[in-house]
From TrEMBL:
Region described as Disordered: 1-75
Acidic residues bias (residue ranges): 13-31
Name of the protein described by the UniProt record: DUF3043 domain-containing protein
Compositionally biased spans, kind Basic residues: 57-72
Keywords: Membrane, Transmembrane, Transmembrane helix
Pfam families associated with the record: DUF3043
Annotated transmembrane regions: 115-136, 142-162
InterPro entries, sorted: DUF3043
């Protein structure tokens, strides 16, 4: 009416009457299935977590203890057989720990190469012991005195053997490099009869090691 043109109904923009619906997450959350539990007996306490873990680690098949003992016994027998052969042949690998090493071998060879009074001590003492029953009191006293002198001589000999072995080892391996216990080892071997020594002698009389 005042110069304005009335807009027709078709020209009026239609207002958004309804908003677009929001996207609905249709993914259903999967519920965690409850763990199956074994039925517990009445009056029995529920096992703890450590007990359940220990039960799971337990092997299904028990070890055969009898077979294990037999295998262990067989291994020990084989080890002892090798050690006995080493005592006869002097093989270093299977000798006992107390007899291993080049210095112990040197001490054995030195003692076995000499003729000592100590290796006859046991035999002489047995002879004097049996002979004393058939002697008079005077003769028995003389034999006893002689036995004391014999033991004193053996003691001096053992000290001399130990010192000789130490000096030879120091000359061969250097001062301060001698193993501990070699002197006592050589003295105890000198006190044994040659046939009863273990490991058995590998040298003859007079064949001293260089």
């Amino acid at each position: 009416m005042l110069g304005f043109k009335k807009k027709t109904q078709n020209e009026i923009p239609e207002a958004d009457t309804a908003a677009e619906p929001e996207a609905v997450d249709t993914t259903e959350e999967t519920a965690e299935e409850p763990k199956k539990k074994l039925p517990q007996k009445k009056g029995v306490p529920t096992p703890t977590r450590k007990e359940r873990e220990a039960a799971r680690r337990r092997p299904l098949v028990h070890n055969n203890r009898k077979a294990a003992r037999q295998a262990q016994r067989k291994a020990l027998q084989e080890q002892r057989a090798k050690m006995r052969r080493a005592m006869e042949t002097g093989e270093e690998k299977y000798l006992p720990v107390r007899d291993r090493g080049p210095q112990k071998r040197y001490a054995r060879d030195y003692v076995d190469a000499r003729i000592g009074l100590g290796e006859w001590l046991l035999i002489l003492m047995l002879i004097f012991l049996f002979a004393s029953f058939m002697m008079t009191d005077v003769a028995r006293g003389m034999v006893t005195y002689f036995m004391f002198l014999l033991m004193l001589g053996v003691l001096i000999e053992l000290i001399w053997v130990a010192r000789s072995v130490r000096k030879r080892l120091e000359a061969k391996y250097g001062v301060g490099n001698v193993e501990k216990g070699v002197r006592f080892y050589s003295a105890m071997r000198a006190l044994q009869m040659r046939r009863l020594r273990l490991p058995k002698p590998m040298v003859n009389r007079g064949e001293f090691p260089s």
